[in-house]
């Protein structure tokens, strides 16, 4: 049994921008945490939320660089956080909890894509560790700050179509493929939202995941120009070549919409795209549109939660 992926007729679409989906929404008095909120889609998300009145805490691995990026934005604070380092996650969480801050919104935006094989912590594959395990530990450690009413939004990707959770080898110990590893980490983001929503809804916490669309951002920093050309993303001169690409304002819209839209009140555990609840795609070949059943299956979500809790030794619900 999977989540009920039924569109809610939001009135927005692929071309909508983050500021447009926030039109008429007053976030004064709300506090949002955005991981990677200083770069690419994260920066546009920070701008939009702060512009609507929210206080925004940006969690960034390079605090100094992040401060330069958000300079001039009102009501924005930067704190250091390395999602690939569980000690950093713990220190960050303790700092925030010591303040007694309630988080109304948490957007798991930070991530890495298609990087060369890299091992972090006890030998974990870096994309799974950074994109998923770090966020798992962060949300669980910050659970006291979320209870009572919050939305948690995980930035997944249509890349999840390529790879379900590899239960027999989640760390790619038997041969590394950068795109399959990325796809698995994005499936993990979606499954995390499914199970968090199941566990948290009684405490007023609802969770969503999403595909932001294709956007040229620093996320592509590990891809050589030749590969992006072969994929049809850029032309021979390095200029954008795919008309389906969104700009960053459009790319940030779905995560802002999922975090704030009253249309989603009472809902959760859903995968979204283009400012709408996505439909399930069970077809072949891969369409990269909608959500695959393996990314919203509650049994796989529970199994992933158990695996993640064992690996990170963090589970707010145990």
TrEMBL record:
GO terms for molecular function: oxidoreductase activity. InterPro entries: NAD(P)-bd_dom_sf, SDR_fam. It comes from the Bacteria. Keywords: Oxidoreductase. Pfam families: adh_short. The keyword Oxidoreductase applies. Transmembrane segments: none annotated. Belongs to the short-chain dehydrogenases/reductases (SDR) family. PANTHER family: NAD(P)-BINDING ROSSMANN-FOLD SUPERFAMILY PROTEIN, RETINOL DEHYDROGENASE. This is Probable oxidoreductase. It comes from Pseudomonas chlororaphis.
């Amino acid at each position: 049994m999977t989540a009920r992926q039924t569109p809610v007729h939001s009135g927005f679409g692929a071309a909508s921008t983050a500021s447009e989906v926030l039109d008429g929404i007053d976030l004064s008095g709300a506090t949002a945490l955005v991981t990677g909120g200083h770069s690419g889609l994260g920066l546009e998300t920070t701008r939009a939320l702060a512009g609507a009145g929210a206080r925004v805490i940006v969690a960034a691995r390079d605090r100094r660089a992040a401060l330069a990026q958000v300079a001039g934005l009102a009501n924005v604070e930067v704190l250091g956080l390395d999602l690939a380092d569980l000690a950093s996650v713990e220190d960050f969480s303790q700092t925030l909890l010591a303040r007694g801050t309630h988080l109304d919104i948490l957007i798991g935006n930070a991530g890495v894509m298609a990087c060369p094989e890299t091992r972090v912590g006890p030998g974990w594959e870096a994309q799974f560790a950074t994109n998923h395990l770090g966020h798992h530990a962060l949300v669980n450690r910050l659970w006291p700050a979320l209870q009572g009413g919050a939305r948690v939004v995980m930035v997944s990707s249509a890349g999840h179509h390529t790879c379900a959770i590899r239960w027999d080898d989640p760390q790619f110990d038997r041969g590394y493929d950068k795109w399959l590893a990325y796809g698995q980490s994005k499936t993990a983001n979606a499954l995390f939202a499914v199970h968090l929503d199941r566990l948290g809804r009684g405490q007023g916490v609802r969770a969503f995941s999403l595909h932001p669309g294709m956007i040229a951002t620093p996320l592509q920093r590990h891809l050589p120009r030749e590969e992006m050309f072969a994929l049809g993303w850029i032309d021979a001169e390095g200029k954008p070549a795919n008309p389906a690409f969104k700009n960053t304002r459009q790319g940030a819209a779905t995560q802002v919409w999922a975090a704030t839209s009253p249309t989603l009140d009472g809902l959760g555990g859903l995968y979204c795209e283009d400012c709408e609840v996505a439909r399930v795609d069970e077809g072949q070949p891969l369409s990269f549109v909608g959500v695959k059943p393996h990314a919203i299956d509650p049994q796989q979500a529970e199994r992933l939660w158990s695996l993640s809790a064992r690996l990170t030794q963090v589970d707010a619900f145990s």
